[in-house]
Write a structure and sequence with these properties.
Blueprint (H helix, E strand, L loop, with lengths): L14 H62 L2 H13 L16 H4 L8
Length: 119
């Protein structure tokens, strides 16, 4: 590395000493920066591991809670209610209703819909 451009005549011609000082300073700064980068890489790797662990625990937690809730609901509903509910659904199949509409059944916009919407 040629640092003779930084040496001035006011230094008395000690360009070699000045050059060595600059090289030592640059080398120490480079080593310090390398150590800082290595410590940052270790910290980022540790944080990535922490985040992965948190994501895994969060993804498992709702599943476990959901399964526990389903089990509680299944245990709390007596079998007679389940049979009654299924019988009600079988008795009257869903069919569209014709006529005998009331104003509360359908909004006025749906009665007078004239198409459009896209312009």
């Amino acid at each position: 590395m040629a640092l003779s451009a930084f040496a001035s005549p006011a230094m008395g011609g000690d360009t070699y000493l000045f050059q060595k000082q600059m090289e030592v300073m640059i080398e120490t700064m480079r080593k310090k920066n390398a150590e800082d980068v290595a410590s940052l890489q270790k910290a980022v790797a540790r944080l990535e591991g922490d985040i992965a662990g948190i994501r895994q625990s969060i993804s498992l937690q709702p599943r476990q809670q959901g399964q526990a809730r389903q089990e509680q609901q299944m245990l709390s509903i007596p079998p007679q209610q389940v049979q009654q509910v299924s019988a009600k659904h079988d008795a009257a199949p869903n069919r569209p209703r014709y006529g005998d509409y009331k104003p509360g059944d359908v909004s006025i916009e749906k009665f007078f819909y004239c198409g459009g919407g896209r312009r």
